[in-house]
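ok trying this again, last paste got cut off
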Amino acid sequence: MGPNQASANKGSEKEKRTMTMEIKHEIIEKHESDVRVTELARQYERSTSTICTILKQKNAIKSTKPSKRVTILSKLCSDIQDGMDRRLLIWIKEKQLAGDSMTETIICEKASRMYDDLEGKQAAERRETSTPAETFKASRGWLDKFKKRTGMHSVVRHGEATSLDSKAAADFITAFASVIAQHGYIL
């Protein structure tokens, strides 16, 4: 293939465009008010298969409540992963409040164990043992996406942050307030 053919093919490739959750909700609402799929595809400049995929996932899209800053979800999570995400978030907050040390490795291991537990419970409820289980790997990429989905910035505590002396911090606040009051400083 010559250089001219390569550049011609490059221009014809479709670029991947993402859709915000608001647009997906609009598409679902318009379809429910009897707007045809072809008209929605034309209006939103998408293929009819894209619109049909959104409409097939409408129950999951309607029930999804992403973090305030998250507007785009590229993949909808399974019920198991959604439950694991919620439980993991609670576990992380409890660990942070307790002042415990956490690393990305610890968080990923906990996520894997939670996922396996939830998957086992769901299989037991359905009495299914022969169906192949979904594969879940709590990797660095998964953790980055988890933090983005949940709106968390820093979940890892190490170094001086883990050796926090809360009693000394409370004593300092009291001593500092008395110095301010004694000398008449304005905050």
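PB: full thing came through this time. The radius of gyration is 25 Å.
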